[in-house]
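explain this:
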Amino acid sequence: MPLSKGEFTIFIRMKTLYLHRHAKSSWDHEYLTDFERPLNRRGLRDAPESGKKLAARGEKIDVFISSPAERAITTARAVVEALGVSEMEIAEEQSLYLPAVHSILNVVNSIDDKFGSAMLFGHNPGFSEAVGYFTGQHTDNLPTAGVVKIEFPFDSWKLVSAQTGALIFIDFPKNAN
């Protein structure tokens, strides 16, 4: 339908960011470094469940980027598999291992603009702090296997910065939703 003179339509292409904390890890192997710690039994159960919940919500994610730490990349693989996406589509980013907020921001700002949505897998306290940084709504602790959805009213990831996003949801295994 054509617009009358003086009317116009604005199309805003949003960017959607998901921050996904790794699932519960095991402390049973004293000889392993922190980087090498695997998921425990609960983590191996919760990670695919998180992916199934995202799929049931109809969430569509274009690119996956994970800390290369064992517990994070294992979580990423389980979530991606539950979403029905090829594991080959997970990029590993060293700066997401125990990141500060500025490291997370640098990763987000470097995402190719052809992607409308991205999911990062990583660790606390950086991920909990990033929620507050991006949205202005602080969370004390993003639980293990917790996922946050944030929308930004931009068509470029480079524009994402402090308090520019809207918190859409926080979900985690013990959440009743």
Summary: The chain has four helices and six strands. The first helix runs from residue 41 to 57. The first strand starts at residue 15 and ends at 21.
